[in-house]
Amino acid sequence: MTTATTSRSDRRISPVFVGILAVTAVTGWATWTGFAAQPGLAVFLFVTAAWIVSLCLHEYAHARTALHSGDISVGAKGYLTLNPMKYTHALLSIVLPVLFVIMGGIGLPGGAVFIERGRIKGRWRHSLISAAGPLTNVLFAAVCTAPFWLHALDGVPRDFRFALAFLALLQVTAAILNFLPVPGLDGYGVIEPWLSYKIKRQVEPFAPFGLLFVFALLWVPSINTAFFDVIDSILRSLGIGDFSTYCGQELYRFWQGTNEFCSISP
After folding, report:
1. Cβ-count burial of 241 within 10 angstroms (0-12 exposed, 13-18 middle, 19+ buried)?
2. Distance (Å, rounded) from C-alpha 221 to C-alpha 242?
3. Active-site residue 260, yes or no?
4. Which pLDDT does position 264 carry in this prediction?
């Protein structure tokens, strides 16, 4: 194990992350004001950039919690800079989740930061480290849905409202999927410290395939329908109707052309 300690430079926010935030802000402004010549392109860039921001914060939450739990190596690995290129699997952590959003409109979790678990003592700390990531998605979802359940939508432009609804859907799906007790996902990481050594050894070989297993299950029509029925119920309870999430996804997929149905406000 490394003996690296964290320094101020290890915690300095990466210019890469600042750039992603800037894209989120600019395209969010363009979506709000209608400044963009192609509203769908602005929505696509806004939602994608905001989704990447949430992925970075998800992994940062894991790393930050691990740091305070005893793993001082996370700083030297660059995990505290919010730079997505520093993750163990940048492809899994960023590229694949974005592709899943484009293909299926679902916030499927990505890769992970590498935590030196041997440095951490106590089962509760191990569980909290795993839970920190999806709890960040829950917080992000609360922020995205706040204008809806607070009934503060007066003056919010239609396209921005649709984009926010679709982004909320991504955060809710990410939180639920991450909390599934499937090997390789955070939900399993929460319960793993409390399992017997024998069970952990039996489950360990399946961990690399957990995400693929979940993705394959979601292709089963009956499971997919049941899953999104749950998601829709949660979003409706937060004031977001099917119309808003549907039109948000339609705007996001700007390359498919304009959907006239969504041009009529509900």
Report:
1. middle
2. 19
3. no
4. 63
Q: What are the angstrom distances between the C-alpha of 262 and each of 134, 195, 241? A: 31, 49, 13
Query: Within 13 Å and on the Cβ side, how many CA atoms surround 59?
Result: 32
CA atoms within 13 A on the CB side of 230: 10
Rounded to whole angstroms, what are the CA distances from 235 to 199, 227, 256? 36, 13, 25
Rounded Cα–Cα distance for residues 15 and 2 (Å)? 26
Q: Which amino acid is at 104?
A: G
Q: How many angstroms separate the CA atoms of 84 and 21, rounded?
A: 13
Which residue from 19, 18, 195, 212 is spatially nearest to 111, judged by alpha carbons?
A: 212
Distance CA 118, CA 3 (A): 13
pLDDT for residue 95? 76
Q: Which residue has the tokens 């509900």?
A: 266
What tokens does 238 get? 């937060």
Distance CA 75, CA 148 (A): 38
Under 8 Å between Cβ of 45 and 23: yes
Give the Cα separation of 249 and 141 in Å (integer): 16
> In whole angstroms, how large is the CA radius of gyration of the chain?
19
Low-confidence ranges of the chain (pLDDT < 70): 1-9, 88-93, 109-111, 264-266
